[in-house]
Amino acid sequence: MTAFSRRRFLAAASAPLALAACGNGVGSPGGEMIDARVDAAIAFMEDTLPETRDLRARSAGMLMMPLMTEAGLGIGGAFGRGALRVDGVTVDYYSATAASVGLQIGAQQYAHALFFMTPAALSNFRQSPGWVAGADLEYAASSNARAFTTDTTSLTTPVVAVIFGQAGLLAGATIEGQKYNRIIP
User: Fold this and answer.
1) According to the model, what pLDDT value does residue 140 have?
2) What is the pTM of this model?
3) What CA–CA distance (Å, rounded) separates 62 from 114?
4) Which residue did the predictor score with more confidence, 101 or 85?
5) How many domains does the chain have?
6) 88: phi > 0 → left, psi -120 to 50 → alpha, else beta; which?
7) Are 132 and 179 in contact (CB under 8 A)?
8) CA-closest candidate to residue 58, choices 10, 119, 149, 139
């Protein structure tokens, strides 16, 4: 591999990760900024998907990631910061990161909420050094801008994910495989 092609490869590989960090409050004043974004995201979510109020009321806790930025050109990445709320009070702050490789091009931003439907699921999340979304995750589907569905299965699933507020051009948004780490803002 020549020096030119190595530089081109490194630039192409690092560009999505650099873009993923844009606009997510990195270097922000800290917890107050994250909490303000979480409050706005909850208000938006409950306004556009009113059924999430019931989901939030039934949950043991909710992790709100108000702004996830995802970009990819073959190699992709996503990043965001948010807050874990229990009984409406912020108890911890988290970052979410993801990487992907495949047929992809573009960038998007979105918000997502993880509803921990059981105290055990919430406890497992809080005690893990780095929780990875996976098998115990159920998506609540939004079939259009104002319709939202959950069923009795998703209400008994340990963790329910809701993705909303998507903007940008990148095929799909998924949180499976994202890693969540506790941070000190």
Assistant:
1) 63
2) 0.74
3) 6
4) 85
5) 1
6) left
7) yes
8) 119
